[in-house]
Design brief:
Elements lengths: L1 E8 L9 E7 L4 E8 L4 H16 L5 H11 L6 E9 L4 E7 L3 E5 L9 E3 L2 E2 L13 E4 L5 E5 L17 H12 L6 E8 L5
Parallel strand pairs: 5-8
Antiparallel strand pairs: 1-11, 2-3, 3-4, 4-5, 5-9, 6-7, 6-10, 10-11
Helix pairs in contact: 1-2
Length: 198
């Protein structure tokens, strides 16, 4: 249903990244998430790993419910920010939601549905600490459309260089190399839709 590429940067001096990703297929579709543990190092990594494991185990639930469940599970930790999307190939639909500052962009392979680039509306907050009012957005999608997620270790202007035609892994590596800030963990997750009904 999808092909994806991921590139990560670990802040020098830290043993592991606080940024985590998930691409999980089930019978209904594909759950995609980019998770950034607050801060960096082991505590951030633990929070983001915990969220990733919970999302994977509950991937059939609606994404608002998933974020609420993560919020409950992560109380007492540093917390996370995240953006996540659920793709339903049978209906040609993408539902996405962002809490915090993990950028999300959908590049359309054709512009026949209007705007060739859609940006995820991010809501301020921290999952596990301060949860905003959650509202998911639903978009129609088609085969070849490409979803880009980038944590805050990647500069926001990365979105000016995007193409739905570039190989996802090459694009992830290129964006990380060109746009990482160097002062935080960074993650780029790119997912191209290959199994959408025409």
């Amino acid at each position: 249903m999808v092909e994806y590429g991921v590139a990560k940067y670990v802040l020098p001096g830290q043993g592991e990244s606080g940024d985590h990703h998930l691409v999980c297929c089930n019978q209904r579709g594909v759950l995609i998430a980019a998770i950034d543990g607050i801060g960096h190092g082991e505590e951030a990594a633990n929070a983001s790993r915990t969220a990733g494991a919970l999302l994977k185990s509950l991937a059939d639930e609606p994404i608002i419910s998933l974020v609420e469940r993560c919020h409950e599970k992560l109380r007492g930790t540093r917390g996370i920010v995240l953006s996540l999307a659920f793709i339903e190939p049978a209906h040609g639909m993408l539902t996405w939601l962002g809490v915090g500052n993990v950028q999300g962009v959908l590049m359309r392979c054709t512009a026949k549905r209007g705007n060739g680039k859609e940006s995820l509306l991010l809501r301020g907050g921290v999952v596990g600490s301060q949860l905003p009012t959650l509202q998911a957005t639903v978009l129609q999608i088609e085969r070849g459309d490409t979803l880009f997620f980038a944590t805050d270790g990647v500069r926001n202007d990365f979105s000016e260089s995007l193409s739905a035609k570039e190989n996802p892994q090459r694009a992830a590596d290129r964006i990380l190399e060109q746009y990482r800030s160097g002062n935080d963990d960074a993650l780029v997750l790119i997912t191209r839709l290959t199994g959408i009904s025409p």
